[in-house]
Amino acid sequence: MTARERTDDANQPDQHAGQAGQANRADRADRADDVEPTTIEQRWRLALGVDASGYPTPLSEGHRAMDTALADLYDVDPQDKGRGGLGGSAPHVARWLGDIRRYFPSRVVRVMQTDAIDRLGLKTLLLEPEVLQGVEPDVHLAAMLATLSEMIPQEAKATARTVVDKVVKEVEERIADRLQQSVRGALDRSTRTSRPQLADIDWNRTIAANLKNYVPELGTVIPERLVGHGRRHRGIQKEFTICMDQSGSMSSSVIYASIMAAVMASIRSLRTTLVAYDTAVTDLTPLLSDPVDVIFGTQLGGGTNTSPAIEYCRQTITRPADSVFILISDLYDSDPKQMLGRVGELLGSGVQVVVLLALSDDGVPSYNHDVAKRLAKMGVPAFGCTPDAFPGLLAAAIHGEDLGRWADEQAAAQAEGITKIGRASCRERV
Predict the structure, then answer these.
(1) Is the pLDDT of residue 78 over 50?
(2) Of the four, 108, 125, 217, 382, which is 20 to 30 A from 46 by CA?
(3) Which domain holds residue 68?
(4) 215 and 350: one domain?
């Protein structure tokens, strides 16, 4: 499949896209000109580009504009960036970005933007304000800007923050409410007591627990045991420590983890710590009031030494029995034996440990299978998780559930084709 064909394939209707497909159709409807190819011949002509010059398929003005935008990207040898293509002009790139947003749906735009960065080396140009203003924001772009943060010129910094802020707001709108509701609901349910005050009695659970005490003559249940919720604690009920590998392969996970940690930090009943590491350790907790600051506080890339990060996190944990440690990593470490030893120390102190091989929409990346299997033997579940499943993971952790079993249930539900949120989101279980 050629690069053009791949882009054209992304432009095809997705039978399983649901709301996303509706959004794409709405995206097209908002355009002044509907230039979507209408025949298979037109699609083949656009997919093949100059190789289809012999095709007797006429192109409309709109189709020719699409063809030109595709030619600027795909009909140029990536090794010969100096001739044709997008060139080295920021205004030209900005116009091209505007053209593809006009003629293609958003998901195709993102594919073409990524290809342009990879094929034509546009990282430098993307640091210019007029180019950034024309870019379709997404998680991958936010990660790239975080990677290049120290290189961004002063005049482009405000625009770069605006782009990342758009990504943050999109993710927060998608997940924040559900995450907060899941966590708060889990915290409330975790405070059940057998000696509740009258207003706190859970009558449904009380009746269910006392059905054996049903008296037919009276037509009622005589409760021997009351079930209810304890009074909501005003202080910290649970500690969550998120320790994220900021190597380049984990870029999407870092973005999502930063946003999730910021949302968790807004919940008063949680104590949330966020630590990023490569060969050094950075505590990002003081920045959690603004996830954009957190993202730009990361330094994506570099080596990986997990042990010092785990040791740092261990020292910040004040209540091991009420703590959950979440390691987000692909487990490629300079000293895996030492890392596993540090994990063992956490487990020995009573901390609940879970490893996320990915926290992203892209599924599980390449990861160290040997280390993952050794973690599984220690009782530490290691799996990939999407942002949509993350609230369920936190709720299960708060309840003290077996997270390995939880992950298995998610994977089984996915295999069965269940589409409920949080059910079809776990990509892989070790």
Answers:
(1) yes
(2) 125
(3) 3-12+20-136
(4) no
Residues 312 and 384 reside in one and the same domain: yes
CA–CA dist 4, 238 (Å, integer): 50
* pLDDT for residue 237 is more than 50: yes
Average pLDDT over residues 124-136: 83
**77 or 103, greater pLDDT:** 103
Average pLDDT score, the chain: 79
Considering its fold, how many domains does the chain have in total?
3
